Structure prediction request, 498 residues.
Amino acid sequence: MKVGVISVQGAVPEHLHMSRVALDAMGRKGEAIAVRRLDDLRSVDCLIIPGGESTTISKLLRKFGLFADIVAMGMDGVPIMGTCAGCVLLAKKGGEQAERTGTELLGLMDMSVDRNAFGRQRESFEAPLEIEGLNDPFPGVFIRAPMITSAWGSCRVMCRHQGEAVMARQDNVLAMSFHPELTGDPRMHQMLFSLV
Amino acid sequence: MTFKLDLSGLRHGTELVKRGFAKMQQGGVVMDVTNAEQAKIAEEAGAVAVMALERVPADIRAQGGVARMADPVKVLEIMDSVTIPVMAKCRIGHFVEAQVLESLGVDMIDESEVLTPADPFMHVVKQGFTVPFVCGARDLGEALRRIDEGAAMVRTKGEPGTGNIIEAVRHQRMIMGKVRELKGKDDAELAVIARQIEAPFYLVKEVAGMQRLPVINFAAGGVATPADAALMMQLGSDGVFVGSGIFKSNDPEVRAKAIVEAVTHYDDPKVIAEVSRGLGEAMHGIEISTLTKEQRMQERGW
Prediction:
């Protein structure tokens, strides 16, 4: 299996590392590569869109010609996981901040996501999460995190924190407002790879 | 689901959350801005964060006098104008300026040699803060002393406000050269080096094993062109701060975008060539040897 991590800006090394840990834990052969060019993008079996700044990542995906291909891959059923900024970009609708900055979204999931919904960095936090399909809590790391404000159609909320939706799945696409790549826990990555 | 979630486990300002913030800035450009209009230009160009200032380093250098934390009105104006993170500078050792910036809600504090130092003995003890700090360093020992105090990110000091990249290159090479030197050494040898570079042994040992700093390391101090930014990335920086280089140039909007793109594609000369075309004049710049020791901001802090 070839895992691609979109590498225009953000927590790329952490996702590459966690992908390798998850592949090992599953006993699956595979590699994880940083994706910045179209030929790299077209070669992968699944894709991770990391955390970072969604305004920056969106502009650079468009600028370097990756945007349309990511959308096409998502529609074709290639498993994709977006964390934090990646979660924002997967949404059909952004909130006020995404509109104000004219941030273009990939729109692969029937959900609305508000950026920085828990506050600024001072309000960033760690908290254990109860996630559908996992037997034990997952260590949630929220950094200027977004929130899923509504989900419709076949988009299903998989986790709430204090009543707010922080993870969703729509068929082959997973989105979470927290950062599994910063923990030592590979279960989110394993969940993605199990869809390949 | 049946298990009970313990919400008392909700924790703010942990090392993971503070260092994690810096990790989200990787591969990005942080730009110095002095008003809302510049902040919007930076955001539009693809900056990952802005540094809110009253004066850019080149002007601080030109005007002299004591440089202090920016007026809260200025910081709040900039925070209101953009959605990306906002950083601000406090003086070295001035923990009350840091408390003020934290209370304003800035996302990261730069304890910076660009401002006039406030404490002749100590840097700010940074562990107690919820907000993360970035600090400058000229070599590995200095970087590790800052990390030991709680810095969640470090950057080269370079020589701010000069538009001259040589000092940032010097500091990056000093840091990375020493990191490589630690490889394969045993504990006794590492203890000797820890004493030599005046850094805690536990951090020297961690760096020896990881073969990199345990926090994100940006380039800063003298970046003026897309090629400067890409040079620092090729030397192993995780991202770039641009101070005076953007808004002291002829065409800030175009230059800001060009530097962002050069940082993403730092190892692709074709892209750097493309974005470097017709940028207009870069900031004029200063030859380092014309500065006296007292005029060199990098000498501030220890």
